[in-house]
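Support request, priority: normal
Reporter: lab tech (M.K.)
Component: structure prediction queue

Hi team, I submitted a job for L-threonylcarbamoyladenylate synthase from Bacteroides clarus yesterday, and the status page still shows it as pending. I've pasted the exact input below so you can check whether something in the sequence is tripping the parser. The sequence length should be 187 residues. Please let me know if I need to resubmit or if it's stuck on your end.
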Amino acid sequence: MIEDIKKACQVMREGGVILYPTDTVWGIGCDATNEDAVRRVYEIKQRQDSKAMLVLVDSSVKVDFYVRDVPEVAWDLIDLADKPLTIIYSGARNLAANLLAEDGSAGIRVTNEEFSKRLCQQFRKAIVSTSANISGQPSPKNFSEISEEVKSAVDYIVGYRQEEMSNPKPSSIIKLGKGGVIKIIRE
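Reply from support: The job had stalled in the queue. We restarted it manually and it finished. Here are the results:
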């Protein structure tokens, strides 16, 4: 696992794209602050830039760095979440512009899964996390279901957890609006 993390970080620092296990499904990832790398992820997924992608961070402390005004309720949601939770925040900052939704929001998830958490810690920046599939096709449940097209398009494929045959669920998604309004996007 340590070698995988080192190599994945090196590839992302050089603007590359990785395929890696997350706290939910396998993800296509890159440096969330690098516009060119983010553009490549959209190209791999054959998806338009207007469809925002979420990012992973390793601690709630980092949310403050990527969001202008974190609503108070966000801290409670993060603390109380018993499964992976992506929160869409208004006023995103310090991320690649092409990663943000048209309204300037961004989806951020604090990961508690061992590999993705350590990857974020080592990389010291937010990492894009989007399901490892071509847009419109089903999300692969595990590594064996990822298409050759996606595998051949990335710069590095993490070896860790490739044999796992679990049936992970995508994260819940909540959008936090003005005045602490909570909108559930995906349960």
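Strands lie at 18-21, 26-29, 54-57, 85-89, 106-110, 127-131, 156-157, 172-176, 182-186. The mean pLDDT is 93. Let us know if anything else looks off. Ticket resolved.
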